[in-house]
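Retro notes, item 3 of 5
We never archived the inputs for the 2-acetamido-2-deoxy-beta-D-glucopyranose complex last cycle. Fixing that now. Sequence and ligand:
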Amino acid sequence: MGVHWVLPGLLLLATTARSEFTFNIVLPPAEFSVPFTGKTSVRKHKKDALAALRGVHSRAVQPNLDSTGSDGEYSFNLIVDTGSSDTWVPQIGFMCFDLDRNPIPEADCGFGSRGFDISASKTFKPFPNINLNITYNSGEFLSGPAGFDTISVGGLSVTAQEFSVPNHIAWLGVNVTDGIMGSAFPNLTSVFNTSDPTKASAANRLAYDPFFFSAVKQKKLNNTMFSVALNRPSLDQDELNVIAPDLGILAFGGIAAVPVTNTTVSVPIEGYSARGGVTSTAPGALSLFYTIDVESLTFPGSENLTVSLNNTFIDTGTTFNYLPTDIAAAYNAAFDPPGVIDPDVGAFVVPCNATVPEFSLSIGGKTFTIDTRDQLFPLGPPVGNETLMCYTGTQDGGPAVATQQFILGTVFLHNVVATFDPFAGHLTFTQREKY
Ligand SMILES: *[C@@H]1O[C@H](CO)[C@@H](O)[C@H](O)[C@H]1NC(C)=O
Ligand SMILES: *[C@@H]1O[C@H](CO)[C@@H](O)[C@H](O)[C@H]1NC(C)=O
Ligand SMILES: *[C@@H]1O[C@H](CO)[C@@H](O)[C@H](O)[C@H]1NC(C)=O
Ligand SMILES: *[C@@H]1O[C@H](CO)[C@@H](O)[C@H](O)[C@H]1NC(C)=O
Ligand SMILES: *[C@@H]1O[C@H](CO)[C@@H](O)[C@H](O)[C@H]1NC(C)=O
Ligand SMILES: *[C@@H]1O[C@H](CO)[C@@H](O)[C@H](O)[C@H]1NC(C)=O
Ligand SMILES: *[C@@H]1O[C@H](CO)[C@@H](O)[C@H](O)[C@H]1NC(C)=O
Ligand SMILES: *[C@@H]1O[C@H](CO)[C@@H](O)[C@H](O)[C@H]1NC(C)=O
Ligand SMILES: *[C@@H]1O[C@H](CO)[C@@H](O)[C@H](O)[C@H]1NC(C)=O
Ligand SMILES: *[C@@H]1O[C@H](CO)[C@@H](O)[C@H](O)[C@H]1NC(C)=O
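Structure as it came back at the time:
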């Protein structure tokens, strides 16, 4: 999911080396890998669907985080999120709020466990007077103490990893996951040098290395990359809201091992100008998200539109593709019957038996296709004899202006292996074999 971020008015030294293109791209096999499992999380009730759409929907992505200490091992299911940078698990006894900041019962935050008991962990080191304060694009927010512990994911173990144990939380969970493993850049972290999290500001922000960055700096990997292959859940799994055991692979140090085609490309990760929130490749650009240029989008009806996209980031933590208003409208109009905005959920929907138009996108001169099955996402189990309705996979991400960020979410990521190399400053996409 995306995160609101704050920028002070200062320019930075360049943090990322950029764009070494290789013509023959050969990625090494993974050094560590862990399967994604979990719940595909369609909301049961239509009234919850809007919340689901705002990013929480992305529970397809859940490896284990094992916080291992001499006093035992705590295992949490975390969402791997390339659209944010903070890793957190709720602190046991946290206060739960709705999005309007009214206190509600703890269970209503919908975590998969009661949280992390810092007093029971001998290895947890608090970071005194330092607090997380983050609001996601979904409207969910959290705040609370930061600290350090050993974190292991799929056998890759990082010592003294900074993370947070929020105690004030507004969360729209579905009782499966316990938090997020943020995997975007250090400058997108939201931890502040203040004992009062409401006093968080750009001036007291303390950037830190997320888990993957620490792993590289602690020399736990020979290759500075992580890779995700997200499997498409079946429509039944979506519809019935069941636990899906095989949702793909998270790999460290190489490419996630799934069958792929020979369509592959590496493209530079774009930074942001320190002042405007627009993408920049100038020296000193701030690296935040896994942002790329998309050269063109092709679908029935795309001929007469401007279909290049700047400022588009790759987000494992968002379900849908969020594209410019005119593009989303034109693509949804090409469904048969056409997608319409359902006012109750504020999103494009179609009957689930609609005919889905083809969709492909060109990145770095290569064309990647999105399977039509990824463009349908049931709103929930059918009620009586009502026609089963589906979200379409392509939703309105706002006007095509330079400061607007667009998102390629799991709808796109079901079709490729995405390999992230923030140290070399590029992403590699490899089209998967049809499955
Ligand atoms: C890194 O490379 C060395 C030498 O090739 C090898 O011994 C080691 O197992 C590799 N480390 C990992 C984590 O794969
Ligand atoms: C989560 O569990 C609570 C009760 O513990 C229940 O009220 C709620 O409906 C569950 N949420 C989902 C999405 O299943
Ligand atoms: C970016 O991160 C670096 C170190 O990681 C830090 O020195 C700098 O202040 C950060 N800049 C912003 C705008 O957060
Ligand atoms: C937090 O701010 C205080 C007061 O400005 C300063 O003394 C302290 O070193 C800062 N802590 C960190 C970890 O930067
Ligand atoms: C986060 O900080 C802002 C000020 O920057 C404050 O208004 C907000 O209440 C804080 N959020 C939490 C959850 O403490
Ligand atoms: C890529 O695969 C296609 C189909 O399998 C094949 O026709 C084509 O020659 C291959 N291209 C290269 C460069 O290997
Ligand atoms: C694109 O423009 C051409 C020429 O104006 C027109 O004939 C065609 O119908 C348009 N296509 C679409 C999909 O609107
Ligand atoms: C994207 O950026 C390029 C150059 O940076 C510019 O020419 C183009 O108009 C931009 N496209 C959009 C849709 O903003
Ligand atoms: C759906 O079922 C209700 C009764 O449960 C009935 O009144 C209605 O006509 C049915 N609608 C259709 C389209 O079959
Ligand atoms: C889709 O299902 C509805 C009834 O639920 C039916 O009336 C319609 O003909 C179906 N459309 C297609 C394309 O199968």
